[in-house]
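2 proteins. here.
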Amino acid sequence: MINIDSLSFSYGRDGFQLSIPQLTINETEKIAIIGPSGSGKTSLLKLISGILLPQKGSISINNVIINQFSDAERRDYRISNVGFIFQDFELLEYLDTQDNILHPYRITRALTLNPEVRTRANNLAKEMGIQSKMKSLTNTLSQGEKQRTAICRAMLPKPKLILADEATGNLDPNNKTRILDALFRSTDKQKATLIAVTHDHELLGRFDRVIDFKDYCLLDAA
């Protein structure tokens, strides 16, 4: 379970300010977050993952207060427990698709790369329809293929929390449905919690709950 209490975050005195008095997300819930651009949706995902730190308040995941960890502790926790699907993919262009998917296992001692992990990576790539691209460099992939690579990388460590920032934003309608189906299947299989930022209101009916930043009054603009 995720619990956010009395959280305040800003990028500067005269800039963006985010205020969340209280927000609870239950284990295995699938949450969609909507709202206007610039309202802090991506910032919320980064705060939950520990990439950003709040100026005030706390974020706890299963009774562990993430923002009290050191930088190294947050990094290891994030790699081991959080699957983050970034809107801009954050793939490494000098690596092929396979090595991008396996990358989390090469940058921390918190994860162990073994044959079972490699098999799981291949199975994820097959499910996402990019198995034939495993040896292709990232800069040769389409936007949709890059998106699917980023999803495979996020899902590989079997995270209990998946944060998706416009995970279907670069996909055509057919692939959008296919990828969302695969993402939901993986979430259910791993009994994980899914928090997804989306502008696609056609998808909202598939989520357990929708949080609208405008209606939910999470944002205080300076």
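next one coming up
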Amino acid sequence: MLGDVLTSTIIADQLKIANPLALVDYVITAPAVALVKGHPSIETIIPVKKQDMETIGGIISLSRKLTHENYDIIIDAYGKNSSALLCFLTRAKQKLGYKKWFAPLVYTKSVKNKPDFKIDFKGTSLWSRLILTTLLDIKPDWNLQPAIYLSDKEHLNARKWLENAALNLNKPITMIGVLGSENSKTLPAEIMAQLLDFTVKTTKTQVLFNYIPSQKEQALAIYDLCNEATKKHIFIDHYPSSIRDFLSVLSHCTTIIGNEGGAINMAKALNIPTFSIFSPWIVKEAWNAGEDDTKHIAVHLRDYEPALYADRDYKNMKKNAAALYKKLTAVKMLPKLSLFLREHY
């Protein structure tokens, strides 16, 4: 997952802070390489195909490659069965991970992934990465946050792309995360359209939709539900062709508004203000890194209907996501969205 890959880069940052001479390599799935390209704390990116981590043969092959590098330390930031098996098969002096049933068999040291709320940190997703570095007797900088690094050429190319798409760089540009990574993480189209109408009416911003070509029909469904005045501000046919191009365009946006997910995390790493809408079945506290109710604002159904969550398991609510989403109405979200727009436009 792109959010996991981006968030875990702070481990490399912390290792470099503790020892500037440390050499840090990063094993990630190939599509996520775009997020880490040019990162100053990472020497070598080792991309793998997703299917390679889903078969015993693929994991064994990768473990042999990693063993050949003679690593002193391996940190399993993913903590799943597949990454644990890779860690088990790869030779290294130290192997670090989370306390799980397999931890004594795999790691030389492990730690509980349970936040200490006496410490001021920026989000539990960041805590869970930095806590791994304490196994090396490092005192973490709990203020560390992920960052994405773009070249001057990429910034310039994005400006040209925006100008060719007839956007005015002297006026606000808003990226809208109209779709989540799956239907259960996507705000209903009619509610998203209402938020769009309010945003454009309030700010007169130019609007780009974040979607890929295969999702255009879904994006158009939201566009069609917007009022005519809003449609005039939406550049519906223009979208970056790659993740790296998207990042470059996003870096020129005033804000991003939309479904919580990878794009929101990317915006934070680019220091772009975010207004994120969490799926009702996702634990907000796990991924609301950096939320301060000013630059980064997040909304969740639980904020408005806490009784719905009394003694309930979030994951069991996934099958009812569509019904729960309908309770997260635009009317409920507008006060916070209004605050966000006043702050940044």
